[in-house]
């Protein structure tokens, strides 16, 4: 995809291409109460920032969808500087015997020798966890066992498989509840890792297509405890404001916000956009 070619074909003076996850940071400065839900209120104050030398105005956003998107932003002199990330491809680190067995099974199932976080923490990841659980001996008669076997044998994804997993978990299915709990805990841990990677004293946001669908789970003790279980930095994470974006059109909204900022500056791009 080339900006110059699109500009010529569309006869538009300037087109700016931005990564679909990085663009979200532009919308955060304009977000309305109806577009998000508070996960953790947070209580960071200036004394916390000064005593611990945390850089102010750094915001991080993470979101499980088809994959695991991550982005960061620095607000500097009223300029928003997005910092793209491929953190979703960091290596998954098991924290329990279940996660260890899951990671071994997934490596064998996917024929890979390295497991990234998004293989577990994403919509696709929820499907992977469910398939691992469904292939056990006690799940032979489970309604989703056949779907899990089809995916394993054909290496083809079934688009609504994670959705079915969620629906059955919410309906009280014990095995799918177990899969969902593993996913929620792993997600919380990944969010906490991002918090200490970025020291995002400007706030931590959870986006992606799964956020509004699993809002109650994101507010659960299972998620929050996994997020805050970061040793010496548990206290810092406990004080961070954490919010979940619930507006399914927030990506489009954020792109409009960026267009507004460009128009407001008479079409001038800042140095980070020029690059």
Question: What report would you give on this structure?
Answer:
This protein is of the alpha/beta class and 275 residues long. It has 13 helices and six strands. A six-stranded mixed β-sheet has the order 1-6-5-2-3-4. The longest helix has 25 residues. It is globular.
In short:
This protein has 275 residues and is an alpha/beta fold. The chain is built from 13 helices and 6 strands.
Essential attributes:
alpha/beta
List the helices and strands and how they pair.
Layout: H1 3-10, H2 24-28, E1 36-40, H3 46-52, E2 58-64, E3 68-76, E4 79-85, H4 97-110, H5 123-134, H6 145-154, H7 161-170, H8 174-198, E5 204-207, H9 215-218, H10 221-228, H11 234-238, E6 242-245, H12 250-264, H13 271-274
Parallel strand pairs: 2-5, 5-6
Antiparallel strand pairs: 1-6, 2-3, 3-4
Helix pairs in contact: 5-6, 5-7, 5-8, 7-8, 8-10
């Amino acid at each position: 995809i080339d900006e110059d070619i699109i500009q010529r074909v569309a006869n538009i003076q300037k087109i700016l291409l931005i990564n679909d996850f990085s663009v979200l940071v532009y919308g955060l400065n304009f977000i309305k109460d109806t577009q998000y839900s508070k996960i953790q209120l947070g209580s960071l104050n200036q004394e916390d920032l000064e005593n611990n030398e945390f850089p102010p105005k750094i915001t991080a956003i993470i979101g499980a969808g088809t994959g695991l998107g991550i982005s960061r932003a620095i607000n500097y002199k009223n300029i928003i500087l997005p910092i793209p990330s491929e953190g979703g491809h960091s290596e998954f680190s098991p924290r329990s015997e279940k996660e260890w067995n899951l990671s071994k099974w997934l490596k064998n199932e996917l024929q890979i020798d390295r497991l990234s976080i998004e293989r577990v923490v994403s919509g696709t990841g929820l499907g992977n966890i469910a398939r691992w659980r469904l292939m056990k001996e006690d799940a032979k008669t489970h309604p989703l066992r056949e779907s899990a076997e089809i995916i394993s044998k054909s290496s083809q994804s079934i688009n609504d498989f994670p959705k079915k997993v969620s629906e059955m978990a919410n309906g009280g299915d014990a095995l799918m509840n177990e899969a969902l709990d593993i996913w929620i805990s792993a997600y919380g841990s990944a969010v906490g890792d991002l918090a200490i990677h970025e020291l995002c004293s400007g706030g931590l946001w959870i986006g992606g297509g799964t956020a509004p669908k699993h809002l109650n789970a994101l507010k659960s003790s299972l998620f929050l405890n996994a997020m805050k279980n970061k040793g010496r930095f548990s206290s810092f994470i406990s004080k961070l404001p954490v919010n979940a974006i619930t507006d399914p059109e927030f990506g489009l909204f954020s792109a409009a916000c960026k267009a507004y900022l460009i128009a407001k500056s008479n079409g001038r791009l800042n140095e980070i956009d020029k690059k």
